[in-house]
Amino acid sequence: MSVTRCNQTLKASKVTIINKQKVYLKTKVSPLPERSNVIYIGKKPTMSYVLAVITAFTSSNTKEIILKARGMAITTVVDVAEITRRRFMKELNIGKITTGTEEMPQEEGRTRMVSTIEITLTPK
Hints:
- It is a single chain.
- This protein is an alpha+beta fold.
- The chain folds into two domains: 2-31, no CATH class; 38-123, 2-Layer Sandwich (Translation Initiation Factor IF3), CATH 3.30.110.20.
- The protein is built from two helices and seven strands.
- A four-stranded mixed sheet has the order 4-5-7-6, covered by helices on one side. A three-stranded antiparallel sheet has the order 1-2-3, with no helix packed on it.
- Strand 1 and strand 2 (8-18) form a beta hairpin.
- The longest helix has 15 residues, at 74-88.
- The radius of gyration is 20 Å and the shape is elongated.
């Protein structure tokens, strides 16, 4: 049994019974890779992601930000890149744009194909 919390994967290493209840003692296995320059686009308002991009560029010495989205969020990721570049950070370049397709498993055991996009933003 493994549990993911706070960017760490925990694995149940020992089961102890206390007061007739099972207690799982967990040990740290390995931290998940943390990429602070990746912003995943979802269902939030567009301006929330624009603010995240601006904050990421101004708060640290980030050389690039990667915006990732799939499915219906692809239109939002394009809007985020263009709004940030045209209105707020005119010195921003759109670097590499990568498109692809992922297989998403469904409840019936079938898989569904979902489009993906990655947009790399870099300062001039």
